What we know:
By secondary structure, this protein is mainly alpha-helical. Helices cover 81% and strands 0% of the residues. It has helices at residues 2-42, 54-63, 65-70, 74-93, 99-119, 122-134, 138-155, 163-183, 188-210, 218-246.
Amino acid sequence: MGDSNQNRSDKLTGSRNILIFGAIAAMLVAAGSIADIFIGTALGGDLNSIPQTAVGRFTQIHRNPLLGLYYFDLLNVVITLILIPAFYAIFFLHLKNNQPWAQLSMILFIIGTAVFVVNNSALTMLELSNKYFSASNDAERNLIASAGEAVLARGAHGSPAVFFGFILPITADIILSIVMLNGKIFSKTNSYFGILGNMFLFIYIILVTFVPGMKSMAMIIAAPGGLMIIGWLIMSAIKLFRLSALSK
C-alpha cells in the first residue's frame, strides 16, 4: 500500500513538472514570437530586400551579425527548440484520449525540428563571413564566396531546401491543435487560435517557397498567423499552469 501511494505521488510530481516546464516554454516562445514580429515589421517585411548573393550576406553579417543571423532563421531555430517542452506537455495530456493523432503530431514535430536545426545555415554563414573578411587574397575570397553560394542555395529562407524544416512542425502544430479541440482539456478558442494561426503560416511558407512574387507581401500573410499563435501559446501556458496546480 505504501509503495502504491509512493508511485502515485511520483507520477503526479512527474506530471506536474512536465506541465510547469511546458507552460514556461510556451511563455518563452510567445515572447520570442512577439520579438520576431517586431523585428520583421521594423525591417519592412520584404524578403526581396535581403541580399541575394553570398558576398552580400557576408557583408550584412559582418556589419550587423544579429541581423544577418536573423535573416538565416536563427531566432526561429531557438524558438522551435524552446517549444519542445510545451509541445510535449500538450501531447502528454492527450495520450489517453487521442493517442494516434497525438503521436502523429509528436513524430512530425520531432522530425521537422531535427530537419530544421540540421539544415539551418546561420552559424555556417557566420564562419564563412569571418573567413571571407580575414582572407588575404582574391583567390581565397572567391573560393569562400563559392562555398557561401552553395550554403545559401541550401539554407536560405524561402528556399525549397528548408521547406520541410518549416512545414513539418507547422503541420504538427495544426494536428495537435485539432487534438486539443477534440480533447476538450483546452478551450475551443485556444484550439482554434492554434489551428487558424498555423494554417496562416502554412500558406505563408507555401507561397514564399513556390511563388517568388509573394515575398514582398510576406508579413501581410504571416503577421495574422503569428499573432494567433502567440494567443494560442499564452492561453496554453495559462491552462498548463492551472493543471499543474491541480496535480499537487
